[in-house]
Structure to design on (428 residues):
């Protein structure tokens, strides 16, 4: 294919910005802007040292599977980023970790991985009800979605209308998705049913969980390969159209002109930088809700269940007074280099505070959530991209109709790159 070489700016270097820079950089001259001092996808990673060990830890730790995340896996494969299966078995407890009410372990069978009850001696009526509802959901939700029975429904509405048990809804689905979507129960309940069903019914139950074998930084370095210029520590203030070109103005006053600009920052940051001539986009982007939360890396074992048989690589703690659960990932179970070392955890939403002397790092994140209104806005935003003279593009995990995850970020990058004439080197 012959593509006329253009000068393109990509603002924001999370996975969406990095992916679009990689795809477009094969044809065009790409300049990437990032306000952090390191590409955004790895801006909060930290170096953990213990004796002779030095390990880069991904913060947050981002996992995926190979059935829902088909484009992410294809991109990683294309770039030579190796992936490996990782154990994200989970335990769910309440009452300050004293009451373990549900848990599963993944058992691997060749390419498949199957969840089983974690601890058969603790199987009770509640865990059996949850397992029965999980099976019912997997059997029937996809069919309901196909028949159009889930259209316009929130996940809460769908589950309650179909009389799933309170334990399944409130003690497994809502906390699990609060962690997957990094948001409050209020936000989970408003997720469109179709989005949650597409995720759960993608075959993930028998796929297990995967991660980039050498962490996010391996992917970041490979994604930067086609990028001509990378400006870190560079905050973009505004993006405006000027005589057939697009201006990128930095907060330090420096300005450059481009043929196209891909805005790959969070939607709530994008609205601050676009001008009046992007009024429709501004209105659509403004409907996307965001929630803030905290991730702490620490070594305090008191945040997970006391008994070894109740512990899992991912440990949920629910507290009725809290608007979201706490989830502690036991990093020693994830990083092979940490096996047999001092305990290390990554806790999202620390409703119990880890002992200060064990804290290695603390970061704050803002994440988009999806509701019926924002889902409609995203669909309209994608239609806006079809305008024949479009030069300003919106890209990000929020910009595709799905849970804002690594996969939607890559899909959004593919969609923008395709509109700009770049060939996508895989099809899934
Ligand atoms: C705690 C947590 C756990 C998660 N776990 C998973 C997981 O297991 N699996 C999964 O698939 N997803 C996970 N996610 C979601 C995933 O991390 C995001 O969906 C994805 O990283 C978003 O990528 P993005 O490129 O769209 O946006 P971002 O990563 O937010 O990138 C936007 C970039 O724009 C930069 N920027 C903003 N404003 C400006 C400006 N004015 N000038 C220059 N640069 C600017 C920002 O600094 C940032 O680097 C998790 C998220 C969190 C918070």
């Amino acid at each position: 294919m012959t593509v006329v070489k253009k000068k393109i700016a990509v603002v924001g270097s999370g996975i969406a910005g990095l992916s679009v820079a990689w795809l477009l950089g094969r044809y065009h001259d790409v300049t990437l802007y990032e306000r952090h001092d390191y590409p955004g996808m790895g801006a909060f990673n930290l170096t953990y040292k213990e004796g002779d060990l030095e390990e880069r830890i991904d913060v947050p730790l981002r996992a995926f599977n190979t059935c829902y995340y088909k484009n992410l896996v294809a991109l990683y494969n294309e770039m030579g980023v190796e992936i490996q299966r990782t154990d994200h078995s989970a335990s769910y407890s309440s009452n300050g970790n004293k009451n373990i009410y549900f848990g599963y372990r993944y058992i691997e069978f060749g390419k498949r991985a199957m969840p089983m009850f974690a601890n058969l001696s603790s199987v009770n009526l509640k865990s059996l009800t949850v397992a029965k509802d999980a099976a019912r959901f997997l059997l029937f939700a996809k069919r309901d979605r196909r028949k159009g029975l889930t259209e316009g429904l929130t996940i809460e509405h769908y589950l309650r209308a179909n009389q799933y048990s309170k334990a399944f809804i409130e003690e497994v689905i809502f906390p699990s998705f609060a962690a997957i979507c990094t948001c409050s129960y209020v936000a989970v309940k408003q997720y469109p049913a179709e989005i949650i069903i597409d995720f759960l019914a993608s075959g993930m139950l028998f796929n297990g969980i995967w991660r980039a074998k050498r962490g996010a930084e391996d992917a970041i370095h490979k994604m930067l390969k086609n990028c001509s210029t990378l400006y870190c520590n560079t905050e973009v203030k505004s993006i405006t159209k000027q005589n057939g070109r697009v201006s990128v103005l930095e907060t330090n006053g420096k300005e450059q002109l481009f043929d196209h600009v891909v805005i790959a920052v969070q939607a709530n940051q994008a609205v601050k930088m676009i001008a009046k001539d992007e009024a429709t986009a501004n209105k659509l982007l403004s409907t996307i809700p965001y929630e803030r939360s905290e991730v702490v890396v620490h070594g305090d074992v008191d945040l997970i269940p006391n008994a070894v048989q109740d512990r899992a690589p991912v440990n949920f703690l629910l507290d009725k007074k809290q608007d979201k659960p706490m989830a502690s990932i036991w990093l020693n179970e994830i990083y092979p280099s940490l096996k047999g070392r001092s305990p290390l955890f990554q806790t999202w939403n620390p409703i119990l505070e880890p002992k200060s002397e064990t804290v290695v790092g603390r970061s704050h994140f803002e994440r988009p959530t999806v509701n019926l209104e924002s889902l409609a806005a995203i669909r309209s935003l994608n239609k806006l991209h079809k305008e024949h003279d479009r030069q300003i593009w919106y890209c990000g995990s929020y910009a595709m109709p799905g849970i804002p995850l690594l996969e939607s970020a890559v899909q959004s990058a593919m969609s923008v790159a395709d509109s700009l004439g770049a060939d996508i080197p895989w099809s899934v």
